[in-house]
Amino acid sequence: MSSIYDYFNTETFFTEEERMARDAVRDFVGAKILPNIEAHFENRTFPHELTPELGALGVFGSNLPEKYGCAAMSNTAYGLIMQELERGDSGLRSFVSVQGALVMYPIFAYGNEDQRQRWLPGLAQGSLVGAFGLTEPDFGSNPAGMKTHAVQNGDSWTLNGAKMWITNGSVADIALVWAKDDEGKIHGFIVDTKSPGFSAPEMKRKMSLRASVTSELVLQDVVVPETDRLPEAKGLKAALGCLTQARYGIAWGAVGAALACFETAVEYSKTRIQFDRPIGGFQLVQAKLAEMHTEIAKAQLLALRLGQLKDRGEVTFGQVSMAKRNNVAMALDVARSAREILGANGISTEYPIMRHMTNLESVKTYEGTHDIHTLILGQEITGIPAFT
Amino acid sequence: MKILVCVKQVPATDSRIKPTGDGVGVDLSSVDWIINPYDEFAIEEALQLKAKHDGEVVVVSIGGDKVEDAMRSALALGVDTAEVIKDAGSAASDSLGIAKGLAAIAKRHNPDLILCGKQAVDDDQMAVPAMLAELLDLPQATVVVGMEVAEDGKSAKVDREIEGGHEKIEVTFPAVIATQKGLNEPRYANLKGIMAAKKKKIEVLSAADLGLGEFGSKVEVLAVNPPAEKTGARMIEGDAAAQVTELIKVLHDEEKII
Ligand SMILES: Cc1cc2nc3c(=O)[nH]c(=O)nc-3n(C[C@H](O)[C@H](O)[C@H](O)COP(=O)(O)OP(=O)(O)OC[C@H]3O[C@@H](n4cnc5c(N)ncnc54)[C@H](O)[C@@H]3O)c2cc1C
């Protein structure tokens, strides 16, 4: 049966275990995350004590194989899990996205069997935390220009450089660092964050994703054994492959944030009385609600279909770009309309809206900015790249 | 140790329910269904006992169309197997009918221990655990908030909540124990458990499979009434001191509560 929160009844396309996974994560977020999330957001802290519990729940790398300690769920289930995490907070979803899509996935896809056995079970359990270092102070949308440098000396490499805006950087046990060799080839390294010469100062002045740790990574003559280089990560393509995984999750996650804002606005509009009637009875408010409702329904259908294609192994990076671009912009618009409907209450952390709205500003920028995805689609359409 | 856990599927506690058109039933067509919250303590206790004493946990239910969903949820938590009775009238049976059905299943399994929630939160009868113990001629302990099973797994010291205090009693197994909030902290389903549950079997039985007659009810419901509508709230205005004075006046003079 459809509800206003699932107007086209996408529910019927999910398998029993996909629905159960979604509900399990929703229950967990409701019980463990939502009660304290405003405080974490205000105090700029992440609830690290919950990392092992998130691991036990199974959300880290939930679509990777059982033999590495993962749940081996479908990509659709993975998407629904991201939706429920981000219904809680984009910072929480970011934490899980980075761990699963940007650290575990590359080790799984580009690592050798030793590396998989060594790292994946701990990352799945949450006894280890990972970070993904691609962005640099001078290279964001254009990572190909990166300056972080790797020099091979026999059985090891020496890394020098700096990364910026790295989620989980200061709390990570390992950082997946992308660096260029003398020939300009890009490699991925699993860097032990306890290595001499590695430091990760936290970036503290964020007004967005405050319940998520963001850091610089500084590498000064950090020595990384050849055995910790991902052998199959050949060039920037590998890094972008990870991003496609993470963007896929974001396309679903954004729906969760939008639903949280929409639900809040709907409830509020039915109970807030002005001029002797609920504000939800005014046409201008209804117009906002109808717009939000429609855009959420479209985004849900897009995510659903994206998941189906990914489960069949048919999804393209252009489709993922379109869904990330559309759904995040949609969520931000929904958050803004919801904010207006709540009036002054909309700006307070008493309600989740402003928190989601400021979070979504980061989500719109990371994993390829909205405009970079526009250019990706532009190239898909015309065949002409417009990046430079 | 073989443990049988009796579970009822009930409407989610936040469901908005209304009487059916004829006024003698509840319209359940659009509610979400959950495992009865008190039964969650029973499942958790069974899983903890299994971890300590080894053995098997079987969950059973008598219910309607969607009862397998509740079983799947229990299997995802780590329960080994599930059996349900689905039959004409099984969902609408009275407490005694349910207890007889559960007793028939229990006899097939010969469990060391039967755990139930102390009551179902939909019709609040609190009758099935006691009836089940009676039908099977087993010792029972109801409203249990603490439980210590002997090393040999053949008896338990249990802590019962009673009016104004606690009662400690010892029961020898097999026994029926009905669980109350506070006994333990029920676990969450995790994703690996959900995937594992997919491979576990839910056996669906009819009353005839168990040699039982048709399910029915000796109780006839005459009417179901919703709670009285809440009347409008009243806002008290003014500064803190004025509000307190006004509030005391309202509670004392108008509502006569204090
Ligand atoms: C909270 C947070 C967490 C992050 N976590 C990580 C992480 O874990 N790991 C990681 O590697 N990175 C991370 N990032 C970095 C993120 O991926 C980058 O911020 C993003 O790629 C954009 O880079 P930039 O900020 O340098 O912006 P720039 O690339 O400088 O872009 C600035 C503006 O210029 C536009 N622009 C750039 N190039 C073009 C063009 N060719 N045509 C048209 N417009 C263009 C952009 O769309 C944007 O509007 C994170 C960022 C944030 C905010």
From TrEMBL, chain A:
Gene Ontology process terms (BP): fatty acid beta-oxidation using acyl-CoA dehydrogenase; fatty-acyl-CoA biosynthetic process
Cofactor or coenzyme needed: FAD
The Acyl-CoA dehydrogenase/oxidase C-terminal domain, residue ranges: 234-381
SUPFAM superfamilies: Acyl-CoA dehydrogenase C-terminal domain-like, Acyl-CoA dehydrogenase NM domain-like
InterPro entries documented for this protein: Acyl-CoA_Oxase/DH_mid-dom (IPR006091), Acyl-CoA_Oxase/DH_mid-dom_sf (IPR046373), AcylCo_DH-like_C (IPR036250), AcylCo_DH/oxidase_C (IPR009075), AcylCoA_DH/ox_N (IPR013786), AcylCoA_DH/ox_N_sf (IPR037069), AcylCoA_DH/oxidase_NM_dom_sf (IPR009100), Glutaryl-CoA_DH_mitochondrial (IPR052033)
Pfam families: Acyl-CoA_dh_1, Acyl-CoA_dh_M, Acyl-CoA_dh_N
Domain Acyl-CoA dehydrogenase/oxidase N-terminal residue range list: 15-126
GO molecular function: fatty-acyl-CoA binding; flavin adenine dinucleotide binding; glutaryl-CoA dehydrogenase activity
Keywords: FAD, Flavoprotein, Oxidoreductase, Transit peptide
Coiled-coil region: none
Family of this protein: Belongs to the acyl-CoA dehydrogenase family.
Name of the featured protein: Acyl-CoA dehydrogenase
Automatic annotation (TrEMBL), chain B:
Membrane-spanning ranges: none
Domain Electron transfer flavoprotein alpha/beta-subunit N-terminal: 23-214
Pfam family, one: ETF
Gene3D superfamilies reported in the protein's UniProt record: HUPs
InterPro entries named among the record's database cross-references: ET-Flavoprotein_bsu_CS, ETF_a/b_N, ETF_b, ETF_beta_N, Rossmann-like_a/b/a_fold
GO terms, molecular function: electron transfer activity
Entry keyword set: Electron transport, Transport
Keyword Electron transport: yes
Record-stated family: Belongs to the ETF beta-subunit/FixA family.
PANTHER family attached to this UniProt entry: ELECTRON TRANSFER FLAVOPROTEIN BETA-SUBUNIT, ELECTRON TRANSFER FLAVOPROTEIN SUBUNIT BETA
Protein name: Electron transfer flavoprotein subunit beta
Taxonomic lineage: Bacteria, Candidatus Eiseniibacteriota
